[in-house]
Protein backbone atom coordinates (compact mmCIF):
# COMPACT_ATOMS: atom_id res chain seq x y z
CA UNK A 1 0.00 0.00 0.00
CA UNK A 2 2.89 2.33 0.84
CA UNK A 3 4.33 1.85 -2.66
CA UNK A 4 1.00 2.64 -4.28
CA UNK A 5 0.79 5.93 -2.38
CA UNK A 6 4.29 6.93 -3.56
CA UNK A 7 3.35 6.12 -7.16
CA UNK A 8 0.08 8.05 -6.80
CA UNK A 9 1.88 11.10 -5.39
CA UNK A 10 4.48 11.03 -8.17
CA UNK A 11 1.73 10.64 -10.77
CA UNK A 12 -0.23 13.57 -9.31
CA UNK A 13 2.80 15.84 -9.17
CA UNK A 14 3.83 14.89 -12.70
CA UNK A 15 0.34 15.48 -14.06
CA UNK A 16 0.10 18.90 -12.41
CA UNK A 17 3.62 19.84 -13.52
CA UNK A 18 2.99 18.69 -17.09
CA UNK A 19 0.04 21.05 -17.37
CA UNK A 20 2.21 23.98 -16.31
CA UNK A 21 5.38 23.32 -18.28
CA UNK A 22 6.08 21.90 -21.72
CA UNK A 23 8.42 18.97 -22.26
CA UNK A 24 12.02 19.82 -22.98
CA UNK A 25 14.17 16.92 -24.24
CA UNK A 26 17.27 19.10 -23.64
CA UNK A 27 16.74 18.61 -19.89
CA UNK A 28 17.74 14.95 -20.12
CA UNK A 29 21.13 14.37 -18.51
CA UNK A 30 23.65 12.11 -20.16
CA UNK A 31 27.02 10.94 -18.85
CA UNK A 32 29.27 7.90 -18.81
CA UNK A 33 28.08 7.08 -15.28
CA UNK A 34 24.42 7.18 -16.38
CA UNK A 35 25.42 4.83 -19.22
CA UNK A 36 26.82 2.45 -16.59
CA UNK A 37 23.51 2.61 -14.69
CA UNK A 38 21.61 2.17 -17.97
CA UNK A 39 23.50 -1.06 -18.71
CA UNK A 40 21.21 -2.88 -16.25
CA UNK A 41 18.51 -4.89 -17.98
CA UNK A 42 15.38 -6.41 -16.44
CA UNK A 43 13.69 -9.76 -16.73
CA UNK A 44 10.05 -10.49 -15.88
CA UNK A 45 9.80 -13.88 -14.17
CA UNK A 46 6.92 -16.35 -14.12
CA UNK A 47 6.11 -15.04 -10.61
CA UNK A 48 5.66 -11.53 -12.06
CA UNK A 49 8.88 -10.31 -10.45
CA UNK A 50 10.99 -7.75 -12.28
CA UNK A 51 14.55 -8.89 -11.61
CA UNK A 52 17.61 -6.83 -12.55
CA UNK A 53 20.34 -8.35 -14.70
CA UNK A 54 23.59 -6.63 -13.76
CA UNK A 55 26.24 -6.50 -16.45
CA UNK A 56 29.97 -6.67 -15.84
CA UNK A 57 30.04 -2.95 -16.66
CA UNK A 58 28.12 -2.01 -13.51
CA UNK A 59 29.51 -4.80 -11.32
CA UNK A 60 32.96 -3.18 -11.62
CA UNK A 61 31.62 -0.26 -9.57
CA UNK A 62 29.73 -2.27 -6.93
CA UNK A 63 30.71 -1.36 -3.34
CA UNK A 64 32.95 1.44 -4.64
CA UNK A 65 32.64 5.19 -4.61
CA UNK A 66 30.45 6.40 -7.47
CA UNK A 67 29.39 9.90 -8.48
CA UNK A 68 26.28 10.88 -10.39
CA UNK A 69 24.57 14.10 -11.47
CA UNK A 70 20.79 14.00 -11.73
CA UNK A 71 17.45 15.43 -10.75
CA UNK A 72 16.17 14.90 -7.21
CA UNK A 73 12.78 13.12 -7.21
CA UNK A 74 11.37 13.15 -3.65
CA UNK A 75 9.63 10.09 -2.26
CA UNK A 76 8.44 11.90 0.88
CA UNK A 77 7.17 15.42 1.38
CA UNK A 78 9.41 18.05 2.89
CA UNK A 79 11.88 20.78 2.01
CA UNK A 80 14.85 18.59 2.94
CA UNK A 81 15.41 15.10 1.59
CA UNK A 82 17.66 12.34 2.91
CA UNK A 83 16.35 9.42 0.83
CA UNK A 84 15.14 10.09 -2.70
CA UNK A 85 15.28 8.98 -6.31
CA UNK A 86 17.81 10.47 -8.70
CA UNK A 87 16.76 10.60 -12.36
CA UNK A 88 18.00 11.71 -15.75
CA UNK A 89 14.90 13.89 -16.26
CA UNK A 90 13.35 16.48 -13.93
CA UNK A 91 10.04 15.74 -12.26
CA UNK A 92 8.25 18.29 -14.47
CA UNK A 93 8.89 16.06 -17.50
CA UNK A 94 6.08 13.78 -16.28
CA UNK A 95 7.34 10.21 -16.62
CA UNK A 96 3.87 8.68 -16.61
CA UNK A 97 2.15 10.69 -19.35
CA UNK A 98 4.00 8.99 -22.20
CA UNK A 99 5.82 12.02 -23.58
CA UNK A 100 9.34 11.09 -22.56
CA UNK A 101 9.03 7.55 -21.26
CA UNK A 102 10.36 6.43 -17.90
CA UNK A 103 13.90 7.64 -17.27
CA UNK A 104 16.65 5.71 -15.55
CA UNK A 105 16.31 6.22 -11.78
CA UNK A 106 18.27 5.08 -8.75
CA UNK A 107 17.78 5.41 -4.99
CA UNK A 108 20.07 7.78 -3.09
CA UNK A 109 20.56 7.65 0.68
CA UNK A 110 22.37 10.76 1.88
CA UNK A 111 24.51 11.04 5.01
CA UNK A 112 22.72 14.34 5.72
CA UNK A 113 19.43 15.72 4.41
CA UNK A 114 19.72 18.11 1.46
CA UNK A 115 17.32 20.85 0.37
CA UNK A 116 14.98 20.03 -2.52
CA UNK A 117 16.08 21.54 -5.83
CA UNK A 118 14.63 21.51 -9.32
CA UNK A 119 18.14 21.92 -10.72
CA UNK A 120 20.48 18.96 -11.20
CA UNK A 121 22.53 17.93 -8.18
CA UNK A 122 25.69 15.87 -7.98
CA UNK A 123 26.12 13.19 -5.32
CA UNK A 124 28.93 10.80 -4.48
CA UNK A 125 28.67 7.67 -2.36
CA UNK A 126 28.97 3.88 -2.37
CA UNK A 127 27.18 2.06 -5.20
CA UNK A 128 25.09 -0.90 -4.00
CA UNK A 129 23.30 -3.46 -6.17
CA UNK A 130 20.39 -5.61 -5.00
CA UNK A 131 19.04 -8.57 -6.92
CA UNK A 132 15.47 -8.16 -5.68
CA UNK A 133 12.15 -7.43 -7.35
CA UNK A 134 12.56 -3.96 -8.89
CA UNK A 135 8.78 -3.45 -8.83
CA UNK A 136 9.04 -2.48 -5.17
CA UNK A 137 12.43 -0.82 -4.82
CA UNK A 138 15.11 0.40 -7.23
CA UNK A 139 17.83 -2.25 -7.44
CA UNK A 140 20.60 0.37 -7.56
CA UNK A 141 21.38 2.61 -4.59
CA UNK A 142 24.08 5.12 -3.77
CA UNK A 143 24.50 4.91 0.01
CA UNK A 144 26.25 7.24 2.44
CA UNK A 145 26.10 9.88 -0.27
CA UNK A 146 27.41 13.40 0.02
CA UNK A 147 26.23 16.41 -1.95
CA UNK A 148 28.99 17.62 -4.28
CA UNK A 149 26.95 20.53 -5.72
Detailed description of the structure:
With 149 residues, the protein is an alpha+beta fold. The chain has a single domain (2-147), classed as OB fold (Dihydrolipoamide Acetyltransferase, E2P) (Beta Barrel), CATH 2.40.50. It has 3 helices and 7 strands; from the N terminus they run H-H-E-E-H-E-E-E-E-E. It has helices at 2-20, 32-38, 56-59, and strands at 41-44, 50-53, 65-74, 80-87, 105-115, 121-129, 140-147. The protein has a 5-stranded mixed β-barrel. Strand 3 (65-74) and strand 4 form a beta hairpin. It is globular, with a radius of gyration of 15 Å. It starts with a helix and ends with a strand.
Task: Give me some keywords for this one.
149 residues; alpha+beta; OB fold (Dihydrolipoamide Acetyltransferase, E2P); 5-stranded mixed β-barrel; two-stranded antiparallel sheet; 3 helices; 7 strands; 36% strand; globular
Radius of gyration: 15 Å
Low-pLDDT segments: 4-13, 15-21
Highest CATH level, the class: Mainly Beta
**Largest beta sheet, briefly?**
5 strands, mixed, barrel
**In total, how many beta strands?**
7
User: What average pLDDT do the residues reach?
Assistant: 83
User: What percentage of the residues does DSSP assign to strands (E)?
Assistant: 35-45%
**What gap, in angstroms, lies between the N and C termini?**
34 Å
Helical stretch tally: 3
The structural domain count equals 1
CATH architecture: Beta Barrel
Strands, helices and their partners?
Layout: H1 2-20, H2 32-38, E1 41-44, E2 50-53, H3 56-59, E3 65-74, E4 80-87, E5 105-115, E6 121-129, E7 140-147
Parallel strand pairs: 5-7
Antiparallel strand pairs: 1-2, 3-4, 3-6, 4-5, 6-7
Amino acid sequence: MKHLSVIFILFSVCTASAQMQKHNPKDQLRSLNWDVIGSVKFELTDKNELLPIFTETIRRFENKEFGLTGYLIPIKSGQKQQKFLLATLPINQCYFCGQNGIPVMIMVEMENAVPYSEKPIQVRGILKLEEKDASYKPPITIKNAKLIY
